[in-house]
Amino acid sequence: MRALFFLGLFFAGQANAVNVLTTVKPLQLIANAITDGGESAALLLKPGTSPHDYALKPSDLHRINDADLVIWVGPELEQFLEPLLKDHSGSLALMNRLSPHDHHDEHEPHDEHHHDEDKHHDNGKIVITQQEDHHDHHHGSRDPHIWLDPHNALQIAELITQRLSALDSANLDRYQQNLARFEAKLAATDQQVSARLAPARDKGYFVFHDAYGYWEQHYHIPSRGHFTVSPERAPGAKTVASIHEALKQANAECVFAEPQFRPAVVNAVVRGTQARVAELDPLATAVKPDSDGYFHFMLKLADDMAACLLNER
What is the residue-level pLDDT of the chain in tens, covering all 313 positions? Predict the structure, then answer.
């Protein structure tokens, strides 16, 4: 009889579990820090999938409709979700809910008069555009990679805690305790990352994807520019020549690619230059989605960046 009683409590708890769905892995990592001890947040886009040009499948529609809480950045990143989530009672679009900090969270828009040129300057940085392919995504005037700033990460955790507490008041104390733990561990991790990157702050580098504005500003480690080239196809000779010239002019130590870029693309860009190559993953593809995942993600990003800039590997 006692066993049946506890079994009943177990199934009641399962029935009342909040169904949380996140769009991209870094948001799942933050959500799982708050849901720790209960049902983990699910992920809509498989790790490594770009949210910029994703096409929804019928199974995705079911998952969205069944979710009690859908956590996404907003139409600035997952534009494909805007029609679906406009009237979804569980939608939590984060970008416009974040309070501004002491740095700029907007990028200067590209000068349209330079659209057909290989090279131009964007807010003081060198930007190399692959002429042969103009289908690259654009973020508009706002950088949607909000999870790369620890200040934003804490606000995201607070917003998730508020929503979960309203949806599942029986577990309010657990959510609040998890938030307190997240805040304390975030502060410690932020200090570790800052210390890791400090010796590399005067080193020049370029990135393949203009995704790191929040990270660069928070840790005072700005890039010299970025390349807008196709991950699948090596850039043409004219684009490569422009990239090589930019790398030499900027005395770039490193070029940071991302997991989706093929080796041929990366090799074409750096061949014949002094720049070393390393990989950064702003989508936390290989990070385990547990309650400490966000902190592991930050530390790995810092270590991968510093190791190349300081020529440690």
Answer: 555 444 444 444 444 689 999 999 999 999 999 999 999 999 999 987 888 778 999 999 999 999 999 999 999 999 999 999 999 999 999 999 999 875 444 443 333 333 334 566 666 799 998 865 444 445 556 899 999 999 999 999 999 999 999 999 999 999 999 999 999 999 999 999 999 999 999 999 999 989 999 999 999 999 999 998 888 888 899 999 999 999 998 999 999 999 989 898 998 899 989 999 999 999 999 999 999 999 999 999 999 999 999 999 8
Q: Give burial (CB, 10 Å; 0-12/13-18/19+) of 311.
A: exposed
Which amino acid, 203? K
Reported pTM: 0.88
Domains, the chain, ordered by start: 2-95+145-192 (3.40.50.1980), 112-141+201-282 (3.40.50.1980)
Residues facing 129 on adjacent strands: 228
| Cβ neighbours of 193 (radius 10 Å) | 22
Contact in structure between 283 and 248 (CB atoms under 8 Å): no
∠ CA 121-125-127 to the nearest 5 degrees?
60
Hey, what amino acid is at 139?
Answer: H
Distance CA 231, CA 259 (A): 9
Q: Are 45 and 310 in contact (CB under 8 A)?
A: no
Angle at 100 between CA 98 and CA 101, to 5 degrees: 125
DSSP character string of 99-133: PP-SS--BPPPP-GGGTTSSEEEETTEEEEE-TT-
Contacts of residue 310, defined as CB under 8 A and 6 or more positions apart, other chains included, come to 199, 200, 203
Which residues have a Cβ under 8 Å from the Cβ of 278 and sit 6 or more positions away? Answer: 254, 255, 256, 257, 304, 305, 307, 308, 313
